[in-house]
Design goal:
alpha/beta, homodimer, about 280 residues, TIM Barrel, 8-stranded parallel β-barrel
Chain lengths: ~280, ~280
């Protein structure tokens, strides 16, 4: 899915919601536990329930890898199921990869080449620590996206990301500036945590046109209106992720309808934001 | 495997060689391609041939993930095979993971919890960008290790890792300093690329006692004697990785014996280094 298609999808659904499929097996509703693949059954129900309100799905690989090959099978089935809705949602492998050039090429195949790996995500999250040649192999895949970590939503972001260099530029700002020569707004997004919404203003000064993937709304405490206030650009340019607050809204048999309710609430708030900004009418 | 056991193993084998199992399927010798699992057959032969000269094996996950679930099966079989040699080698998942706290906990299970994932590595490589809470969940696993990226061997290391903050401290030095409060020499190592051997002197000033995992010797051009000159400490404190120069020393039917030859050459050079330094007699 390219920039124009994603932007159009946002306008059509009046939503910039990304649902994080962080489907931790211990939190899956009890009544699904006896099915053949509880995590896939859970994901399928969550997708069916939330698709009208959602423009992107973002499984975090950790929650699948923690169950070894069985977990990867759940992920594979989930992504195969999402192929039925290719024009209705964008898909992000939240994997935070990055390695030396020839190795990152292998990771790119892992997420982008269906022929090689069976997976065909639209985008993958990448860590910037190893620099350009760790990122560019992903950008070499036509029509695919890198979502580069800039300012994350966790406490550990303070350890290094906010450190300023001799010219007063924080590391995350340096990442935003430097990486813009590696890709364009058409294949490069940035992760900026909602828990630092006021920093979005600074981010928008450096990267006015790029999509920002904003985690941390919901369970992590970030505010959607604050994120929109500082992060929205003229085409929207935001994907706001919520995971636990939607997928684990209920742990009972009504988990899917409760997830839909939570997603709908966010979509309605987003619709209002988009209308107030004149992005949709 | 703990610090004392690893150090003893180095002295016994008179080697600090780590073999990188970057077993790219397109480079596997042709005569193995018709076996049921060419990558596993290749790895098993490489392990059998190099074990006398090697103290550690380091599969890079990218080369397995690029083949999807089939690739993960090859890795699983390889690691199951290595369990036969638990006291004879240390194992490192070169995965360069790192995420917010509860997610990193899931990654830790993926690599350290046999019950959860089927994998039971001694160590995993972790990227430091997201800071303390992205690293500490790995360190919470008793007897397991984090190998934290500090200064990598690739060109992209210049983008951010060498940037100095207002106090003149480069990012990689800051990572070395800050992370020492997260773990000890008993569960925390650092990646320092051999392509910048002279920087090892600076690294040793900051982290005199920690093990350093040094990639970049061999195909990437780093020199073993330079690495030892600046990186060795009184107990050795080094694991030097070579991948392609050993495992792809030949692409013919003699690939295993040629790999053994290359590993033996490095072990002999390492033995001399250890004797000259008085670490073994």
């Amino acid at each position: 899915m390219n920039w124009a298609q994603l932007t159009e999808l946002i306008k059509t659904k009046q939503s910039f919601l990304c649902v994080g499929l962080d489907s931790e097996i211990d939190k899956i509703p009890a009544h699904l536990r006896n099915t053949e693949d509880p995590v896939f059954e859970f994901n399928r129900s969550i997708i069916d329930a939330t698709l009208p309100f959602t423009v992107a799905y973002k499984p975090n690989l950790a929650f699948y890898e923690s169950r070894g090959i069985e977990g990867l099978n759940s992920l594979k089935k989930t992504m195969d199921y999402l192929e039925n809705f290719r024009t209705e949602c964008f898909t992000i492998a939240d994997a935070k990869r990055g390695d030396i050039g020839n190795t990152s090429s292998q990771y790119a195949r892992a997420f982008f080449s269906k022929a090689a790996s069976g997976f065909d995500f639209d985008a993958v999250t990448v860590a910037p620590y190893m620099g350009e040649d760790s990122v560019s192999p992903f950008l070499a895949f036509e029509g695919k996206w890198v979502v580069l970590l800039a300012l994350t939503s966790n406490k550990g972001a303070f350890n290094f990301q906010l450190n300023e260099d001799t010219s007063g530029t924080a590391l995350f700002e340096n990442v935003l500036k430097t990486s813009q020569s590696w890709g364009s707004k058409n294949n490069l997004m940035f992760v900026v945590g909602a828990t630092r919404a006021e920093m979005l203003e600074k981010v928008r000064e450096i990267a006015p046109e790029h999509f920002l993937l904003v985690p941390g709304v919901g369970a992590q405490g970030g505010s959607l209106s604050e994120v929109a206030r500082y992060g929205l650009n003229k085409d929207c340019g935001l994907l706001v992720n919520a995971s636990r607050s939607i997928i684990f809204a209920s742990t009972g048999t009504d988990f899917a309808s409760k997830a839909a309710e939570e997603a709908k609430k966010m979509q309605e708030e987003m619709s209002l934001i988009l209308r107030n900004a004149g992005i949709v009418s």
